[in-house]
Amino acid sequence: MALESYDTENNDLDIALWPRERAIEYVIDNYGETVKRIIFTYVKNYVATDDLFQDFLITVYRRLDSFQGESKLKTWLCRIAINKCKDHLKSPVNRIIYLREHIHDTGHSKSPEQLSIKDEERQQLINAIFSLSIKYREVLVLRYYQSLSIKEISELLHLNESTVKTRIARGKGKLRSKLGGVQFDEIES
Amino acid sequence: MTKSNRNYKDAFDDYIGEEPLVKKEDKERFYRWLHQKEKKKSTSAHWRPKLATATLFVGAIVFSFIYLQDAFPQPEESDQPPVVEEEETIPFDQVREQLETIMSKYTVGMTKEEVQETFGQGKVYEGQSETDGSTYEAVEYQFIKTTNEKISLHPWSPDHVEYYINGDIGLSFNVVWEENGSSYAFARYLNEKGKRISTVDFSSDGSIYKDGKFIENDLYQIEASGFFVENVAASLQKAPEYISEEDLKTLQNLNIKPLSSTDRFQELLPHDYQYIKQMKSLERLYLKGYTLPMSVLKSLINLETLIIEDVQNLGFLEELAPLENLSYLDIHQTEITTVSGLVELKSLNQVVLNKGKVTDWEVLEENGIEVVESP
Fold it and tell me: How far apart are CA A20 and CA A60, in angstroms?
């Protein structure tokens, strides 16, 4: 089969059979941005995001053989990235760094004049999400940023669907107590 | 996507940054790693011309140096300003001695009282882990401190490298107790070259790492990864802390597989391979998602049964020929496509494989080896 015919998301379940460099190019071009943004939501630091993304690419390169196509390629890749982030955060030094680091000012945010009241509320909400502990932050990021279903989140994080629902509910509760009246609009899958 | 989903997504993107995070540098960095890896592989094949070039280059430099010295006379020694060596950082010998003291006296699992009795009161602090929101208590020590200035290393960030570079602190040591009862510790100091901070991590599972590289296991009797020791323990149905080198020598049946979902990305360490090589009594080996280097596999001279799952390739199968007792090989859940090398194995009776994947399986039958498709 010609390589060109692999270049659709529907056909990437057999990526383990592709030439490895081609597979990595495909992963970077098609899933790199999503993966890097997920990594950032864990470590909240651009330099660490770059380093972990490299780690992620090396792991994918080495373990491509073990992708059996049982889950979507995106799910498999996100799982590797999330495990990398959690391993990174487990390191004693990183725990202390990230514990003490305040919410990062990315420098890309819109100025208050550019934000409508609704936008501003949402921005506050996102800031508050980034100040939550990982276990609540990750489910809210995957649900509201990556728009994954409860089932997909449960597969990705190896959690029961009921646990995911509970964490989302508790995460929202913590946000309410941080922000007062700000509410989540209900999201549609 | 609904409007509300889009709005949240946009707000997240505003926070993280609207510019793409994936840059061409990411690909370049990855390919640098890949090419270095490939270069390492081929280095041994090209050492002679490289050595000749290097000799020529060094010779040219030495010749130029001698010639230039003759051509431009140097000023008299007395004309030169005296060289003053500034010794700003703390001598590394002192730091090393302190680190050795810590490594000999600290053991994972010590209580706060035991630690304080051993190392002094230190600075006690509390915090909350971002990973799971749990609380912890910790003690920090600043050893070989040369200043009376009150130094606070928290928040812990690379900016504090200056304290080590300026020689204010030789080594800091933190011991942390989590609310779930586990504890870990880490020591930080300026490395021997004085260029960057080195870290020695004492993990709660007993593994000790220096700058991320495994040094030893403080919890288990053998100096191997926790993942390997736990697999041996599971195979023997013993607690991992009781696994000894003697157990490895008498072990007859070993399974190496992920024991939990987080083990999926665990890797075996070179230390683990050294222990596997000692398993001279091993008769049955089951590998799921892991391969061993051929040099390790072929040292298992008493192996009779080998079952491999979820791997792409094993290498040149004829290299297994030293396994004179291997009679049963199951590779039906692998991606191996050629097996003719197995005819070199004198005792091999039965091979389980997927005939749809393996192109040359008939060669085995022609050589008297039974081929079946399911175990």
Answer: 9
B186 occurs within a structural domain = yes
CA distance B101 to chain A (A): 20
Q: Cβ–Cβ of B310/A96 closer than 8 Å?
A: no
Read off the CATH number of the domain in which B257 is found. 3.80.10.10
User: In this predicted structure, what is the pLDDT of residue B58?
Assistant: 62
Short-list B136, B107, B129, CA closest to A94: B129
Half-sphere CA count of A149, side-chain side, radius 13 A: 4
Residue of B nearest to A127 (CA): B15
- How many whole angstroms separate alpha carbon A173 and alpha carbon B278? 55
Give me the residue from A40, A53, A133 closest to B26, CB to CB. Answer: A53
What DSSP designation does A143 have?
A: I
Q: What CA dihedral angle connects B319, B324, B330 and B335, to 10 degrees? A: 0
Contact B115, B106 (CB under 8 A): yes
Residue A66 to residue B289, Cβ atoms within 8 A? yes
3-state secondary structure (DSSP) of residue B176: strand
Which band of pLDDT confidence, cut at 50, 70 and 90, is reported for residue A81?
very high
SS3 (DSSP) at B340: helix
For chain B, what is the domain count? Answer: 2
**A135 contacts B132? CB cut-off 8 A:** yes
| Residue A126 to residues A82, A180, B359, Cα–Cα distance (Å) | 19, 14, 55
Q: Scanning the structure block, which residue is given the tokens 């309410």?
A: A176
The Cα of A5 is separated from the nearest Cα of chain B by a number of Å equal to 22
- Give the structural domain span for B285: 226-372
Give the number of A-B residue pairs with CB atoms closer than 8 Å.
Answer: 162
Is pTM beyond 0.80? Reply is no
DSSP per position, B220-243: SSSSS-HHHHHHHHHHHTS-GGG-
Q: What is the pLDDT of residues B202-226, one digit of tens each?
A: 887 778 888 878 888 888 888 888 8
Q: What is the ipTM of this complex?
A: 0.80
Determine, for residues B186 and A92 on separate chains, whether the beta-carbon distance falls below 8 Å.
yes
d(CA B153, CA B123): 11
Coil, helix or strand for B139? strand
Q: What's the pLDDT tens digit per position in B253-304? A: 999 998 865 555 567 888 899 999 989 999 999 999 888 988 999 899 999 9
Domains of chain A, CATH where assigned: 3-94 (1.10.1740.10), 107-179 (1.10.10.10)
Q: What residues of chain A lie within 8 A of the CB of B14, using their CB?
A: 108-110, 123, 126
Look up residue A105 and give its amino acid. Answer: D
